[in-house]
């Protein structure tokens, strides 16, 4: 029974991921508190607002939700990006 439940859960997760259009990203400050978030389309980028300093960052996402800040920009020291799910 547990095996069947695990398979069903895995299948539903795979279905959710295939229906998603992008990755939800959070900008974290040095205390790991979220100071900005948004949806970044797969294999593309989106401008995400950092409410700590009112700066917008062009964040790109791969199909497996790997994130990076576009060339010419960088997050403040100690800040990071975190995957918060699919969108």
UniProtKB/TrEMBL annotation:
Keywords (alphabetical) are: Signal
Q: Among its keywords, does the record have Signal?
A: yes
**Which residue intervals define the domain ToxB-like N-terminal ascomycota in the entry?**
23-83
- What domain of life does the UniProt record list for this protein's source? Eukaryota
Q: Which InterPro entries match?
A: ToxB-like_N_ascomy (IPR041450)
Q: Name the Pfam families for this protein.
A: ToxB_N
The leader peptide range reads 1-19
Protein name (Swiss-Prot/TrEMBL): ToxB-like N-terminal ascomycota domain-containing protein
User: What is the scientific name of the source organism?
Assistant: Colletotrichum plurivorum
């Amino acid at each position: 029974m547990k095996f069947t439940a695990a398979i069903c859960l895995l299948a539903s997760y795979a279905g959710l991921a295939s229906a998603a259009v992008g990755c939800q990203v959070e900008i974290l400050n040095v205390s790991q508190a979220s100071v900005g978030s948004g949806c970044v389309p797969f294999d593309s980028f989106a401008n995400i607002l950092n409410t700590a300093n009112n700066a917008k960052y062009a964040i790109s996402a791969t199909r497996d939700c790997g994130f990076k800040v576009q060339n010419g920009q960088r997050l403040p020291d100690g800040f990071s990006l975190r995957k918060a799910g699919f969108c």
